[in-house]
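Page 37, continued from 36.
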């Protein structure tokens, strides 16, 4: 266990949003980012890493404490990458190591393509890059059905279809417990924005492997050791193949950093120290 690090919070105003961020620790800048996961989801990992690094976490645009001027604006990988670029520049502590998970991994890859000078290493942990899959057409149709199901106010039905596409087993009683009944209004608002304005734009983003191979940024593709056979296991392996690198295994599954921040960050340090 480590002593709790002091947390500095701030708001960075950008032309179309207000970006909430948190900073912990001291040392080289390390960014932890998700989409739609917010800063709170990375708090445990940030605490561990703050013993050796300045750690930046943020609520992605449109979620929780980072409201958009236009709440109907889509959250794209490029917009979120620009947000990270502005946050890193604002802190004047870069270039940074950027660890992104899920949609945040897509953000990290987009940032490496658009602003490689700001990123020494981009760790893309289980990016849901649907378009890299051999059955991308079928997966695209499934995504559209999920979005339409949520828009029709069938929340549990949408999540059931989402987890089926993700190849993650979640029994109906658990779905009812998590997504039924009384829920936190902020969580519901974040969920609504993600289904309506983020899921499509994130999963449809297509990386540029030749560009990623040519930039000075080191790109590491991460996969949860317990994610075998899942959607993001397949997408991450397709990305690693396209980049000509071997994927790196991390503890746990898609959200291993939440469930085991100590083990996960120890593995992240090992990976970053490898040549």
């Amino acid at each position: 266990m480590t002593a709790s690090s002091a947390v500095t919070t701030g708001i960075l105003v950008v032309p179309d949003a207000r970006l909430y961020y948190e900073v912990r620790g001291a040392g080289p800048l390390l960014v932890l980012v998700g989409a739609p996961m917010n800063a709170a989801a990375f708090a445990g990992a940030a605490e561990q890493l703050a013993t050796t690094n300045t750690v930046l976490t943020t609520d992605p645009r449109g979620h929780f404490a980072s409201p958009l001027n236009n709440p109907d604006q889509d959250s794209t990988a490029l917009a979120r990458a620009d947000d990270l670029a502005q946050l890193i520049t604002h802190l004047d502590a870069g270039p940074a190591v950027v660890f992104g998970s899920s949609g945040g991994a897509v953000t990290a890859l987009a940032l490496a393509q658009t602003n490689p000078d700001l990123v020494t290493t981009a760790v893309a942990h289980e990016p849901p890059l649907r378009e890299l899959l051999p059955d991308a057409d079928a997966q695209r149709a499934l995504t559209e059905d999920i979005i339409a199901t949520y828009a029709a106010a069938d929340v549990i039905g949408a999540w059931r279809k989402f987890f089926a596409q993700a190849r993650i087993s979640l029994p109906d009683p658990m779905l009812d417990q998590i997504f039924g009944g009384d829920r936190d209004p902020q969580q519901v608002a974040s969920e609504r924005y993600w289904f309506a304005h983020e899921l499509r734009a994130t999963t449809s983003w297509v990386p540029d492997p030749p560009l990623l191979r040519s930039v000075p940024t080191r790109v590491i593709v991460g996969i949860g050791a317990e994610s075998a056979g899942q959607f993001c296991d397949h997408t991450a392996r397709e990305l690693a193949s396209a980049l000509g690198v071997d994927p790196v295994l991390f503890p746990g599954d898609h959200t291993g950093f939440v469930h085991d921040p100590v083990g996960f960050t120890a593995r992240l340090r090992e990976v970053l120290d490898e040549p």
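The longest helix spans residues 136-151. Flag for discussion at group meeting. The beta strands are 7-14, 17-24, 29-33, 54-58, 96-101, 119-125, 218-224, 248-250.
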